[in-house]
Hints:
The chain is an alpha+beta fold and 357 residues long. Helices cover 24% and strands 13% of the residues.
Amino acid sequence: DFERFRIGLEDFLEVEDPGEGLGPVFNGRSCAECHSIPAIGGGGSITEIRAGRRNPDGSFDPLPGGSLFQLFSIPPHNCQESIPPEANVVAARKAIPLFGAGLVEAIPDETLSGLADPDDRDGDGVSGRVHWVLDVGTQTIRAGRFGWKAQQATLLTFGAEAYLEEMGITNELFPLENAPNGDAERLRFCDPTRALEDVPDLSTGLRGIDNFEAFLRFLAPPPRGEITDTARQGEQVFARTGCDACHVPVLFTGPARIRSSTGVSCRFIPIFCCTTSEPATASRKAMPWARRFVRPPYGDCASAGGCCTTAAPPQSPTPSFGTETKRLSPANSSWPCPRRKRRCCWPFCNLYEKTLF
Length: 357
């Protein structure tokens, strides 16, 4: 197991070049360029750009080529992307930390489905639904849990999608190169070879996406910080205020490919959460999921969340995860937790936050 983790870490750190398939458009030359804070596998300071057009009827048009506009291109830069003038929605997003991703993957779909409560039958003011997606690796319908839109269900497909979208490296799961601004003719001149770029290593038989999967599966969650009296008080306020209706305190993994990951308790705290969304988001996914996001994680199994939400707390477009949630009471346009209580909760939440950022 450690050897697979080591090989995966090497691939995660490897800086790619055009000869290895980088580009023609990309956001980073290695996974670690975007996932390195506070350690390899964490978040990052680089922001990728999403853009599109919000139509008068409120629907979202991702424009030709999709809503992701890669920041860089390989020489001679004939395929450099640009945001077209008709785009009226632009969003910048940072990479989500991946710590504990293997435990996130091991949470059963049924557990996430059980949290949905689409009709708010328990009367706690929170409703939601799982984002069911087609997992391209197994061709089965699964509960999404990785990515800003909970658009991937497994670490293999999550890494494979990022390999293509962020680095421009085609693979067996995502074999079609990104055409800059949707222009296939430009792509033909920038990338004349159409062979798959992520091929099995001759010595190990493993693809790059297999190594990413192994690295993420074994990547440990950060430990919880010191538990002080102030933190305990914050935990009580957190529960009494009803924050845990969205921020599910503990979940358990089911049968996992790694025996040590079976039946493990995961303390997600602020991951499964009821947050905000932009009026119209720069998402490649069509409505109705275009207004639903994944919350950046704080918890000790940090890599996914549980609420793709349409509610609207403060001004920033902070996303959320695999189940859509909407606060039904008292008003969707106001932050549900008063400022005074937020100050009380912070020492408790900070036990997780400080280990990640």
